[in-house]
Amino acid sequence: MSRLRNVALATGLLAFAAAGLLFPFFLVTSRSKPIIDASKPLPPQATFRGPYVNTGSHDIGPDTTTYTKK
Question: Domain range for residue 17?
Answer without folding.
Answer: 1-33
